[in-house]
Structures are given as structure tokens and as C-alpha cells.
Amino acid sequence: MHAQYFSSVFMYLRNPFIIFIYKILRYMKILVCISHVPDTTSKINFSEGDTKFDTAGVQFVINPNDEFGLTRAMWFKEKQGATVDVVNVGGTETEPTLRKALAIGADSAIRVNTPATDGIYVAKQIAKVAQDGGYDLIIAGRESIDYNGGMVPGMVAGLIGANFVNTCIGLEVEGNEATAIREIDGGKETLKTNLPLVIGTQKGIVQESDLRIPNMRGIMQARKKPLNVVEPVDTATHSEAVKFEKPKPKGDIKLVDADNLDELINLLHNEAKVI
Amino acid sequence: MSVLVYTESEEGQFKKTAFEVASYAKGVADMLGTEVTAISFNAQSAGDLGKYGVSKVLKVNDEKLQKFNAKAYADAIKQAAEKEGSKVIVVSQSANAKYLAPLLAVQLEAGYASNVVALPEGTDPLQVKRTAFTNKAFNFTKLSTDVKIIGLSKNAFGLKENQTDATEEDFSPSLSEGDFAINVVSVDKAADKVTIADAEIVVSGGRGLKGPENWGMVEDLAETLGAATACSKPVSDMGWRPHSEHVGQTGKPVAANLYIAIGISGAIQHLAGVSASKTKVVINNDPEAPFFKAADYGVVGDAFEIVPKLTEKLKEFKAGNS
Ligand SMILES: Cc1cc2nc3c(=O)[nH]c(=O)nc-3n(C[C@H](O)[C@H](O)[C@H](O)COP(=O)(O)OP(=O)(O)OC[C@H]3O[C@@H](n4cnc5c(N)ncnc54)[C@H](O)[C@@H]3O)c2cc1C
Hints:
The complex is a heterodimer. Chain A is α/β, with parallel strands linked by helices. In chain A, 34% of the residues lie in helices and 30% in strands. Chain A is globular and about 95 Å long. Chain B folds into two domains: 3-180, Rossmann fold; 201-321, Rossmann fold (3-Layer(aba) Sandwich), CATH 3.40.50. Chain B has helices spanning 16-32, 70-84, 95-108, 216-225, 233-237, 268-274, 291-294, 303-321; strands at 3-7, 9-10, 13-14, 36-41, 56-60, 88-91, 111-116, 122-123, 126-132, 137-143, 148-152, 167-170, 183-189, 201-205, 228-231, 258-262, 279-284, 297-300. At the A-B interface, helix 5, helix 6, strand 9, strand 10 and strand 11 of A face helix 3, strand 7, strand 9, strand 10 and strand 13 of B.
């Protein structure tokens, strides 16, 4: 009797239709890539003969583009059920940034313990984490505001063979299907595709007013959430930032009297030659 | 061995960025002692590509590629690079080019430098100057791979004529089903508006304009100049203007010839995103506004008086000049 019961339950579970339903109902697994970047107001200076970014006095934050994506991930979690993990490739100094993402609501964090040397190197680390975790949706900022590489999301997608939508400003997922809005030059387009999916995102996926400031409870909970440190995969970089330079200081402005706009037009036409 | 350049077109016509990347590719090809091959998608002819130094155009004509498709385009460019034995590939930094470049980099195991603003400093190893920290700095990047991809910033190199006889060749890459796993359902794009990405001139308004009802004068000025309209972040956050007009560090970058900022204070995040523009004009009633330190020309005064007057005068100027 019992044996029969179990075997029929077993059969039932292996029924393709049940597996299909299970897949639809199954929580989406989301991975959000978090880049640890200087706050937008930071003064940018370099040290060691202009070869290193000078972090002295610099406040680090979650890359703004990533924060928009993280907020969208929280909505998936709250509205349709999902688990949200965050990942950063970096040294121990990035942990406060990951903790902030946990305080905002991510379930767990992964830090790949290695400096973020270049785009492909970071993408390969994230691709490994993505594959090991079997994520359905990977959300990354369209670019990080420090090196502005704009390549990690696309590279991750290319490496793991997932679909990819860049400059994504809208995303809905139902079952295995995704509808995404992509910002294009001068407008937007709506795309349909399937999971697994990687998006490169920015403001628009959620609005500025939707961003969440972690509250005390979130901060307390974040301390107890897992932050797993994993060792990097050994892989070569493709590029190297050899030195930095600051833009030349701007020459003095020419002020034109509000009653003498002809002079402005003259300057724009004859001096700047832009009209 | 030729330098391969992805030349973008719209409805069969090459965009200005196509000529800009071609001009740049010609510069790189001269350094390497080789020629420039372009790959075009559904463009009728080589058009003006020869004028900017292109020797050969690989023309892809495929119904399925009418709409931009990053993966399929990347796949086609990869096959073109392999066929030509190209070691350097140049793309623009349009939304589409930025979308496909990382996919192409993975396919070709190529190093990719984005936001490049000048010809390479040297070719062995290949080292390029690019912007970083959203225009707050430049960064020199060395690419160590066999194949390299350069993403050229808009308006950084300009157009350089270099009359060349461009031969045309039909090219049919073999595309797989996997290249079409993403489908465009609809495109929403104002056909008659200049985009911030393509504009030579951008007219931008900030919180100083008090409310969305006051944007008529900004639009008039923009129309007179054939310019795109833009705005500061709070203006888009408050819903006065669409998000697509938000420029700055967390919005769109602007690299126009002329950027006119009206009622914008010039916060560091705003300036970072627009500073690649060649000439900047600020109109602000507060002479202490930080933008006056970052602009080339400035008018201190009330935008509500200055802007309509400026538009009138520009109309006269245009009428007298044409
Ligand atoms: C993480 C982060 C990212 C950000 N990213 C961006 C970004 O990408 N882009 C961006 O723009 N901002 C960004 N900001 C916001 C930025 O810090 C400023 O708050 C914003 O740029 C200010 O916009 P504004 O100049 O329109 O408004 P304000 O700073 O309020 O300036 C309005 C200006 O209008 C002038 N004015 C008022 N009345 C008149 C008049 N009648 N005639 C003429 N002038 C007048 C005033 O003197 C003032 O200078 C960011 C901020 C943060 C924290």
C-alpha cells in the first residue's frame, strides 16, 4: 500500500506536465551584480604617478545603475516571488557595499575575492557564479560610473549563452518569458525573449523615487544574512589601465551681457564656429 | 588584415557616426599599414564611405536583419572579421554599438576599449586614450589580445576626408537560430525629432525653468538651432520632461558641438555627463552658479527674458545667413 502510494507520487512528480507547472511556479532566481564605485560627488585624483585611482577620502556606494536594478529585483521578489542574490568582484573593502545591498533586501551576497582588474576578468568571475547558482535572471548596471566600461553585462551573457538586453528600462517576466523595454537612441523598443536573461540596466527600470534607503531593521537583518566569499577562477585579462590623466582646466568663461545677445551669436558663429 | 569598421545606417542611409568611425579606422589603418573594410547592414550602396577612407564595403542584405539585432549583428561582424583577418575592429558608441560590442568581444576573444577619444598612442602594444569616471578623467588602456575592438566616442575624432575607391562586395554571414532569440515587438521613436545621441547642438533646461509649462521657449530655441532637447535629472524625476531627456552622469552622455544649459546650476553629476561637448553656453540668473566655471560662454540673467530674445535673434541670424 505504502510502496504503491510512494511510487505513484513519484510518477506524478516526474510527469512532464507537473514539471512544467513546477517550473512556472518555481521562484525565479535573480543575481544582481553590484559594482562598488566612488560616490558621484567624489573628486577624482590619482596616485603612484597617475597609475592608480586615489581612494583617500572617497566614499564608496552601490553603482547607481546597479541600484536601480536591485530595486527592480526586490519588486520581483515581493510581487511574484524570487530569490535575490548580489555579487561583487572585489576585495574586502567592498563588503560594506554588499551589506548595503543586503540591507535593501537582497537575500544573500557573494564576493569573489579578487580585484576587479578588467571587464572580461570580472565578467568571467560573474559568469562562474551565475552558472554555479543556476540563475534565471542576471541584472547588472549598463555601466559602472568609475571606469564606464559598459561591457560586463554583455560579456556575462555571451559567456554563459544567455539572452541579453542592454539599456533595459522595463522588464516583466512570466514563467520563462520576458518582455523587456530597451532604450535606443531617440526612443525605445519592446523586446520579447526567454530566460535565462541578462540585462544591463539604468534609471527607468524603476524611478528615482522608488529607490530604497535601508532602514534600521534592514541594516540589522543584513548583518545576519550570508555573505559568502568565493575564490576567483584563474583567467587572463584583456586590457590594462596603464595610466590616468585629468582633463585640462577650462579656460575662462566669456560673459556676454543679457542686453547684447548679438555678441553671443557672433561668438558662437565666428569664434566657436558651432552655429 | 584590414581594419574592420561597423558602419551604422538607418533606412538604407549611413548615419554620421558611420563616417566618423570610418575616418578613425582610416587613421588606425594608416598606422598599421593596411586598409579599411566596412561592414554595412541593408544599406543600398557604399554611399560616401569611400570619401572617408574605406577601401571595401561588405554589404549584408538580409530581410531578417532589417531591425537591429545585437546578437545577429555581432555574429555577422565576427564572420566578417575572420574573413578579412581583421585584428582591429572599430565601432561607434551609439546605443546599438554599445549593445553589440561586448557580445562581439566574447565571440572573438577580443579586448574591448570603450569611450575612446583619440587615435592609438601606439599599435604594438595597442594603447588608447579613453574617458573614465564619466569624463572626470582620461585613462590610457593597453589591449593585449590578438583581436581588439575600439569603441569610438561620438564627436571625439570628427570627420576626415580621405577619398578612396570603395569596392562593394555582397556578404552573407551564416546566422543561426540562436541569433534570433530576441524579437523586437515594437519600436517607439519620434521620427521627426533630433536625438541627443545624433545632435550637433543640445538645448537643455533645468529646475530654474520652474515647471513643464515653460518648456515651449526651450523647444523654440532648439527648433531654431536644429537641436535636441535635454534636461537635468530633477526635471525628469519630477516628470516635467521624459526620462529619455535626462543627461548627466546617471543619464545620457552629451558630446555635442554646442550645449546650451538654461536654468541648470551645474552640479558635478550634471557636468560630468555633458563636459565632452565642445562648446558650452550657460544662461543662469545666479552668477555664482557652478556652471559658470565649466562653460565657455555665459549670460547672467533671467532665462524667461533671455531665451525668447535669443531665439528671435537667432532666427534673424539664420535668415540673414542663408
Ligand atoms: C547619485 C546622483 C546622481 C546624479 N546624476 C545626475 C545626472 O545624471 N544629471 C543631472 O543633471 N543631475 C544629477 N544629479 C543631481 C545633481 O546633483 C543636481 O541636483 C541637479 O543636476 C540639479 O539640477 P538643476 O541644475 O536643474 O537644478 P538646481 O540645482 O536647482 O538649479 C537650478 C538653477 O536654475 C537657476 N535659475 C533659477 N531661476 C532662473 C531663471 N529665472 N533664469 C535663469 N536661471 C534660473 C538657479 O540659479 C539654479 O542655478 C545626481 C545626483 C546624485 C546624488
